[in-house]
Design brief:
Blueprint lengths: L4 H14 L1 H39 L3 E6 L18 H8 L4 E16 L2 E10 L4 H4 L5 E4 L9 E4 L1 H4 L13 E6 L5 E11 L13 E4 L1 H7 L7 E6 L5 H12 L3 E5 H44 L1 H9 L4 H35 L4 E2 L15 E2 L7 H27 L3 H6 L2
Parallel strand pairs: 3-8, 5-7
Antiparallel strand pairs: 1-9, 1-10, 2-3, 2-6, 2-9, 4-7, 5-8, 6-7, 11-12
Helix pairs in contact: 1-10, 2-8, 2-10, 2-11, 8-9, 8-11, 10-11
């Protein structure tokens, strides 16, 4: 008896529908396993891509130098903080391979205006270097503050246009910044400019930052010592030698952060995490495969007489085997498609709990608290989508192979006598 492929799958679908509850539970296991793999791997890819994008904004040829005793705003127990001064700027500038050294002041605080209160960061820096420091940063409106105007500031986009508030900042509007920590107090500025939306870099969320001139920060914060130094090398190839030179010269007095090596380490960690997450999803699919085997065996036993009748009518062993494999593959197809759709939604839900925070624990070295954060957008590659669709089918077919073979090898006479 001849059977077309469409007939095989029609019969297989009817068999699955005839056992709705059992089929649903079997397919549910495939859905869960597929969704876990897709969601976790896509989220891991998104985290890695987001970190690499942040490094791309600040440049791989940038080093950050901070006091070892005040790394990321904390203080090392029993360690006297080394205070970075203009002398250190001149010293590091003299090192071979250094293009520029940009000192900065940084303080966390609460930014208030027009009834809005926003947690943000105040950074004092040579504002003319911002376009060098942050690739692609541009003004939305207004202008950069004058270096010698202590009342002028340029603000990030999220400060000017806070989410959920109708009170938006206008140019030349007064802003109050209440500082915390050792330099507690309130400062007032006029918004001379507003930056376009930019997002986070490794050390700050630019959209939640107020920038003032270096001279203004020194005057208002009443200190001649910097929170840290950005060291720009001639090229990415000079980063390692410059880092070694600084660490050799200062010893344990300062910490030197290499954005490029940091992202390499984080990428390596996320890659290992991705493998681990894939293994978790793989275990789920293995459990689903066991469920398929169990379901198929039960189905073969329940349909023993049916198999005998089919053989008596002239169905060949390979046709019976194809029928049972079609049932298994349909389970994989349905589970793979549904699992991929569920995984897509789940990946965005997970992304909301994987923040790309500025600074990985808080702003530039020397600042306190943590910068704002942006959620991680999952990354779905074509390979990942194809894998999430085809892998469940392969698992299902392999799981159904032996039960299908057992069904095809049944003796027609014995099967017809089966009660």
């Amino acid at each position: 008896m001849q059977m077309r492929a469409s007939d095989v799958f029609k019969l297989a679908f009817r068999a699955l529908r005839a056992r709705k509850t059992r089929s649903f539970l079997t397919i549910l296991g495939i859905i869960i396993g597929t969704a876990i793999i897709l969601a976790l791997v896509a989220s891991s890819n998104g985290l890695s891509t987001g970190i690499q994008g942040q490094v791309g904004k600040i440049g791989a040829n940038t080093l950050t130098v901070s006091s070892a005793g005040q790394f990321f705003g904390g203080s090392s127990s029993g360690t006297q903080s080394y205070e970075l001064s203009q002398q250190d700027v001149s010293t590091i500038k003299s090192f071979q391979g250094v293009s520029d050294v940009i000192p900065y002041y940084s303080q966390r605080g609460t930014i208030s205006y027009g009834g809005n209160s926003i947690s943000g960061e105040l950074i004092g820096i040579d504002v003319s270097t911002l376009s060098v420091m942050y690739k692609g940063l541009s003004l939305y409106s207004g202008s950069l503050p004058d270096s010698y105007d202590p009342s002028a500031a340029v603000v990030g986009y999220s400060i000017a246009f806070p989410t959920g508030s109708s009170n938006q900042l206008t140019l030349n509007q007064m802003i109050s910044v209440t500082l915390g920590g050792s330099t507690s107090g309130s400062l007032t500025f006029l918004a001379k400019g507003i930056f376009s939306a930019y997002g986070s870099v490794l050390f700050s969320n630019i959209d939640e930052t107020i920038f003032i001139s270096l001279q203004s920060a020194q005057l208002l914060l009443k200190t001649q010592y910097f929170s840290g130094l950005y060291v720009i090398t001639n090229s990415a190839g000079d980063v390692a030698s410059v880092q070694t030179a600084i660490e050799t010269y200062y010893g344990t007095q300062v910490r030197v952060m290499n954005a490029g090596s940091m992202v390499s380490s984080i990428t390596s960690i996320t890659s290992e995490l991705s493998v681990f997450l894939e293994a978790i999803g793989g275990v789920s699919l293995f459990v689903a495969a066991v469920g398929i085997i169990n379901t198929m065996f039960v189905s073969v036993m329940e349909r023993t007489r049916e198999i005998g009748i089919m053989k008596a009518l002239g169905y060949k062993s390979k046709q019976i085997m194809a029928l049972f494999l079609a049932e298994a593959s349909l389970s994989g197809v349905i589970g793979g498609i549904a699992g991929t759709m569920l995984g897509y939604v789940l990946a965005f839900m997970i992304g909301g709990y994987l923040p790309l925070s500025g600074g990985f624990g808080g702003g530039p070295p020397g600042s306190s608290g943590s910068s704002g954060s942006s959620v991680t957008a999952p990354v779905f590659t074509s390979e990942l989508i194809v894998f999430s669709l085809l892998y469940p089918i392969g698992i299902a077919v392999l799981a159904g192979l032996y039960p299908a073979w057992r069904a095809s090898r049944m003796n027609a006479v014995v099967a017809l006598k089966y009660e």
